């Protein structure tokens, strides 16, 4: 029987859909009722890691920092004045596996702020002027982290929602131009972000984004269908836009060129699960840096990459200015065996809605893009702060011509 739906302020609710049985490490994603109960404490001292000192305590739901952390970053130097704003194409990559109910609701609850601040910029520094020029217009799309080999969406833009109060169908992507109804577009975007809980447990957000954006004849090898950028997703990505890719997932990227090998068992709980083992058939991070840069060859600055994933809350003080060295070297960001955890590794963080596991590959890609990246912990109680940070990062970069 399905669990009761949750209500959002905008009267949206995520359908309590059963998760697929397959997941990384041959462990089933937790059901909705099970996720609602407190997670067991991890006895790090018993981990079979060769005597390595245990990681520091989990954040245990502490919402460190201001809810609007990062929204004032960079105001000392001041942004470059923009003469001609650019359009924005924003792609959400949503983990739709069975452990993502609370996180999808959290993001959907805060997406109206993202849209409203992009099109009606705030005056955070109080100088009487908007903090950036509003983009010319917006394209907003959503894909999920599963690929077709395991029954996922394969990077095709979603045209339906798992929200109980949402419409039956939507266009492949939403469009907003000046004068349009901000509230209506915001609600539709929030509905599309409610992607449900029936996706594969093998999360491949980077490959899903690549297949969503690249044209079918792109010079890359892929598993299954060719990329969809000029097919099902035609018209979403424009040549002159600021491209923003935002990933929401509670596990690390497992973009693989041999999914069958990863899915083969048996699995030993005394070892790291698939996707996290040395020698697993994963695509190199270079593939995704090169792919995203290839989409903006003449204006590499017209790109923004944001990650809301498994990172300890306390080491992300400012999402717009992540300390990558500190994040990647933190004990909680290492792959460490824990047979009692949901996927067999020690959590990077734990919040009210569940756990996040070390998102090393996603953070490593964010590091490649430096100040064009935003990083936040998926365990944060509210995503209001990171949504404001993404709006600011995108708004300041979306410029065709600077003064």
Characterize the largest beta sheet: strand count, sense, and whether it forms a barrel.
6 strands, mixed
User: Over all CA atoms, what is the radius of gyration?
Assistant: 20 Å
Question: Helical segment tally?
Answer: 9
Q: What's the arrangement of strands in the largest beta sheet?
A: 4-3-2-5-6-9
Low-confidence stretches: 1-53, 60-76
Secondary structure class reads: alpha/beta
Give average pLDDT, whole number: 85
How much of the polypeptide forms β-strand, as a percent range?
5-15%
Overall number of strands: 10
Number of domains: 1
User: How are helices and strands ordered from N to C?
Assistant: HEEHEEHHEHHEHEEHEHE
Topology:
Elements: H1 32-36, E1 82-85, E2 88-94, H2 101-119, E3 137-144, E4 174-177, H3 182-193, H4 205-213, E5 242-248, H5 259-263, H6 285-294, E6 303-309, H7 324-329, E7 349-351, E8 354-356, H8 360-368, E9 373-377, H9 384-397, E10 399-402
Parallel strand pairs: 2-3, 2-5, 5-6, 6-9
Antiparallel strand pairs: 1-10, 3-4, 7-8
Helix pairs in contact: 2-3, 2-9, 6-8
């Amino acid at each position: 029987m399905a669990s009761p739906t949750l209500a959002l302020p905008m009267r949206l609710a995520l359908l309590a859909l059963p998760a697929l049985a397959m997941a990384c490490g041959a462990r089933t994603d937790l059901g909705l009722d099970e996720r609602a109960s407190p997670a067991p404490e991890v006895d790090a001292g018993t981990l079979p890691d060769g005597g390595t000192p245990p990681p520091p305590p989990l954040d245990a739901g502490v919402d460190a920092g201001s809810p609007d952390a990062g929204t004032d970053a960079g105001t000392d130097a001041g942004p470059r004045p923009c003469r001609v704003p650019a359009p924005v194409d924003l792609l959400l990559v949503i983990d739709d596996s069975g452990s993502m109910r609370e996180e999808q609701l959290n993001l959907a609850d805060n997406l109206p702020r993202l849209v409203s601040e992009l099109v009606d910029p705030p005056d955070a520094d109080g100088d009487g002027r908007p903090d950036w020029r509003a983009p010319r217009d917006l394209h907003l799309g959503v894909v999920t982290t599963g690929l077709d080999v395991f029954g996922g969406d394969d990077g095709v833009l979603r045209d339906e929602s798992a929200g109980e109060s949402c419409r039956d169908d939507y266009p492949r992507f939403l469009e907003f131009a000046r004068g349009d109804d901000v509230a209506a577009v915001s609600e539709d975007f929030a509905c599309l972000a409610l992607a449900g809980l029936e996706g594969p447990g093998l999360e491949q957000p980077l490959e899903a984004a690549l297949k969503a954006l690249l044209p079918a004849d792109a010079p890359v090898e892929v598993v299954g269908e060719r990329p969809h950028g000029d097919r099902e997703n035609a018209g979403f990505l424009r040549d002159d836009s600021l491209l923003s890719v935002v990933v929401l997932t509670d596990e690390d990227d497992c973009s693989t060129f041999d999914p069958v090998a990863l899915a083969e068992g048996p699995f030993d709980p005394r070892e790291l699960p698939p996707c996290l083992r040395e020698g697993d058939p994963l695509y190199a991070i270079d593939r995704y840096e090169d792919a995203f840069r290839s989409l903006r060859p003449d204006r590499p600055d017209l790109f923004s990459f944001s990650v809301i994933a498994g990172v300890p809350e306390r080491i992300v003080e400012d999402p717009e200015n992540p300390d990558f060295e500190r994040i990647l070297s933190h004990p909680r960001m290492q792959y460490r065996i824990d047979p009692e955890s949901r996927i067999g590794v020690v959590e990077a963080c734990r919040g009210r809605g569940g756990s996040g596991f070390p998102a090393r590959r996603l953070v490593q890609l964010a590091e490649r893009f430096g100040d064009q990246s935003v990083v936040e912990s998926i365990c944060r109680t509210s995503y209001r702060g990171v949504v404001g940070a993404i709006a600011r990062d995108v708004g300041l970069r979306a410029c065709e011509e600077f003064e």
